[in-house]
Amino acid sequence: MIFLQPLGGLCNRLRTLDSVIDLCEKYNRELTVFWVNNAALTAPFDELFELKDTRGVTINLIDAPVGFPDLYRSPGNLLKNYLKGRKLTGNQSQLLKTVKAIPESRIIWKDDLQKLYDSGSFVNSHSVDEMDARLYPLVQEDVERLFQGNAGENVYITSCYRLSPVLDAYKKFEPTAELKERIDKTTSSFTRTIGLHIRKSDHETSKKFSTTEKFVGVIEKEIANDSQTTFFISTDDEATKTDLIDKYGDRIRFNAVSSYERDSPEAVKDAVVDLYCLAATSRLYGSHHSSFSQVAAIIGGIQATTVM
Question: Of 91, 96, 120, 189, which has the highest C-beta tally within 10 A?
Fold first, then answer.
């Protein structure tokens, strides 16, 4: 069994999960996923997606509490108070026992992957695609060793990175019927519509390189090329959205957003809707080093240009 805890926000989790499903299919392994509801993403998987076309891979999705399973593996004195009173279900307790028994030689830790990814040295000059391509050969030996191992040997992986190249444009995931209805309602108005993903909030690299002023320059250039061009804007900053709507009026398409806080389940649903609306545009201008921009372009099979 492969045990996976995908980490980070929406698209980091999708990237990791997508790649591990591909590896499980390649090496005929079963997969258990610990989908942890925490500050980075507070929404159960089944409220966001249905799994489709996983090519025969048996997948067990577990909605897990904050800190599971790592903080429960060997809690120190400070964590004992944090975990006090938090009761696990019988299934979670059994899974914890299984994961705790996995030796270090069969674990891939996110912190070790982060050292290999070495974003501090390359993030300013490399795209997400380039960073992914750099990481794959660095992890290939460990990935093959663990996935090719005896089927009875359990493996545990914590990651916010892809571990293998994209094979099927994220077709394993389909938004729930509720979210798909919202997506279809927005995209039905797309005419000559270009996607703009303007990342702000806590993404310092995007804010530094992909400024709103540069996106305005893109909009002006596209309007000069085609006066009928419209734009779908996805951003995590309400002021940016408001400014562009005020400036360009009906040219701007957008979704109503209930919240920009990641610890809001509704905000996560809004993000899924925005992701698939971006994917439905004719082409995309995205923010530097944003996995959200990358995944949207791959899902839609559209050209993506990083605004820098």
Answer: 96
- DSSP state letter for 104: G
> Do 128 and 237 reside in the same domain of the chain?
no
This prediction's pTM: 0.92
Q: Which two tokens stand for residue 216?
A: 């305005």
pLDDT the model gives residue 258? 75
211 confidence band (pLDDT: 50, 70, 90): confident
73 and 202 part of one domain: no
| Residue 167 in domain | no
65: pLDDT strictly greater than 90: no
Asked if the bond preceding 69 is cis, omega within 30° of 0, the reply is yes
Question: Which domain does 110 fall in, by range?
Answer: 2-159
Residue 169 lies in a domain: no
CA dihedral 225, 229, 234, 237 (to 10 degrees): 70
Asked whether residue 192 is assigned to any structural domain, the reply reads yes
Residues in contact with 172: Cβ distance below 8 Å, sequence separation at least 6, in sequence order: 18, 21, 51, 52, 53, 54
Across the beta sheet with 107-108, what order do the strands follow?
59-64, 31-36, 2-6, 155-159, 107-108
pLDDT tops 60 at residue 82: no
